[in-house]
Write a structure and sequence with these properties.
Blueprint lengths: L9 E5 L2 E4 H24 L5 H27 L1 H6 L14 H19 L3 H8 L3 H14 L28 H20 L8 H17 L19 H25 L1
Antiparallel strand pairs: 1-2
Length: 262
């Protein structure tokens, strides 16, 4: 068993002002995405200025935050938020959904594309390889917060998390997701997008690979307490939300190459 590194979730405390590592992970994800996008900008559209790229990153980041929060409310704990709507604004208590964030990004990208003469999938193909930076940073934030841990296990790399009331050795599922959704997905998309691909193909590859990776990790991750398993004694909400991504990703890739062949 590996010891859990005791990291204070508060990175910086200046009197009553506290800056949490989880919040810094969002800044790292957004900053890293902007940096990579600026390096890929000329290949995407040499007529675009850095200011226009900054506008795109701003609207995408807004979509991540608003969509992630509202997605968690709708998908994971709607009755609690209906009973006490003020909880929606209490983001410091946690509760962000990747799938909600993805919907927020899609809506903000569609809106930005209409205003700047770019199709939805042109922009989504450009954005997709940037997303794993934020996903990986977010999972490190989950690990520092000792949240979203996995099921009990006797594997040699199991950890006991201080937030676990049972104090059992568990899968460090946050690190699994960091490795798959962050590192592996980043490498796959960067390698795949190095060569020209038909429009929609990179977006499809993102949806397919993320859906598969998340679906697999959900088998060893403890489901949200208020939901538990939805069916068969193992199906979680995360897996339910990933199934359309897997099917949609396959469909987008097939459609993209079929259109290219025509």
């Amino acid at each position: 068993m590996l010891p859990y590194p005791q990291i204070d979730p508060v990175a910086i405390a200046l009197g009553p002002v506290k800056i949490h590592w989880y919040g810094l992970m969002y800044l790292i994800g957004i900053g890293g995405a902007w940096w990579l996008a600026s390096r890929r900008l000329e290949r995407f559209d040499p007529t675009w200025s850095r200011e226009k790229l900054s506008d795109l990153v701003f609207w995408v980041a807004l979509g991540v935050i608003l969509g992630g929060r509202l997605g968690y409310v709708l998908f994971y704990d709607l009755p609690a938020y209906i009973a006490q709507p003020s909880l929606i604004l209490q983001v410091w208590k946690g509760g962000m959904s990747f799938h909600g964030g993805l919907i927020g990004v899609m809506l903000s990208t569609w809106w930005f594309g209409r205003r700047n003469g770019k199709s939805f999938f042109e922009l989504m193909d450009f954005i997709a390889p940037l997303v794993p930076i934020g996903l990986g940073a977010g999972r490190i934030g989950n690990f520092i917060n000792a949240e979203l841990w996995g099921k009990a296990t006797d594997l040699p790399w199991a950890m006991i998390f201080p937030t676990d009331p049972q104090q059992l050795p568990r899968h460090p599922s946050q690190l699994y997701q960091f490795a798959l959704e962050g590192v592996a997905l980043f490498c796959i998309l960067c390698f795949y997008s190095r060569k020209p691909r038909p429009t929609m193909a990179v977006s499809g590859m993102f949806a397919l690979c993320y859906g598969i990776f998340r679906f697999i990790v959900e088998f060893v991750r403890v489901p949200d307490a208020q939901l538990g398993y939805l069916a068969f004694g193992w199906l979680t909400m995360g897996q339910v939300l990933c199934l359309p991504m897997i099917l949609g990703g396959l469909g987008l890739i097939a459609w993209a190459y079929k259109r290219q062949a025509r």
